[in-house]
Amino acid sequence: MTFQQVYGYEPAVRYSAPGRVNLIGEHTDYNDGYVLPFAIDRRTVASIAQREDRLIRVASAFEPDAVHELSLDELSPENMDGWSAYVFGIAWALREQAGADLSDRTGFDVFIDSDVPVGAGLSSSAAIECGVALAFTDLWELGLDRKVLAKVGQYSENHAVGAPTGIMDQSASLLGEQDAVVFLDCRTLDTEVVDLALEANGLEVLVIDTRVEHAHATGGYKARRDSCERGAEVLGVPALRDVSVEDLPRAQELLDDETFRRVRHIVTEDQRVLDTVETLRADGPRAIGSLLVASHESMRDDFEISVPELDLAVDTAMANGAVGARMTGGGFGGSAIALVDREARERIAAAVTAAFADAGYREPTVFTVHAAQGARRDA
Q1: I need a surface site. Which of 34, 87, 160, 320 has the fewest CB within 10 A?
Q2: Which residues pair with 366 in a beta bridge?
């Protein structure tokens, strides 16, 4: 299915935005901490044409028989549901969060296609949001920069979609560059592009999609966020970003065991992000393996967001020669990543697939990603 097949004419423009892999720094974003994601060479494409009325119409290749419609005069989270909220929510958030005056704007016909796997923890949602946000901003001539658009995407996901996520995904999708990671301070939104240099070092990132689907708008993600907010409140800080590793003994005295372990993950994960940036600059990507593994162990044991399939993926990759491995994304399913030598990629992928079969799990989807450019106009 294409834009032309749905709407009967050709689109005027095409914008695309990538999914992301988070190299390290999980659940630190909504705690005002540090993250280190990169945009990947899997993209969502938004084909768009401007209309003469106030209607936004949305269709997609993954729901070919449905066209969702909403007037700019009726933009409200109450009028949005399902995946189309990722598009309608951007228009609403441009008005509500960024202050855009849409009173005299016309709507769009939008068609979404994507090769970012859904439910794999690679932020297929942010890829939709960021491609659409950049397109609407350009076509409406709003003059908003990419850091503002990252806030717009987060606001939409929080309040229109209802998922309590931080700003990392949108920042990676908008600000990513080739063979580099985005070092993001989630409090100040200061960003710095750090050379990843995988190509020069003969390394690749292997994504192991466990095919255990997760849903951020439900359950476990919100519970972890609530624990973090509770820990910060008891410790008397605005956010867990303000707690250092040296503060953890005091935190253990003040907090119940579960809340303390949630806090300990965030505090140590922030430090691991800083250590990873320093290590990449000083020693290159081959030296970060132990930090990736420590991150996974913290998510497994302290934050308790891993699942057996993710643990098996990480353990098997490491046992077969990976430089480092960890689960990535919000947890409760999704994907693990393994930093591997290029020539070992097929062997490690085969070992993981065999291990899943032996354990009676669904066959994982294993593929390579490369750090890529962020959102852009393609045509």
Answers
A1: 320
A2: 208
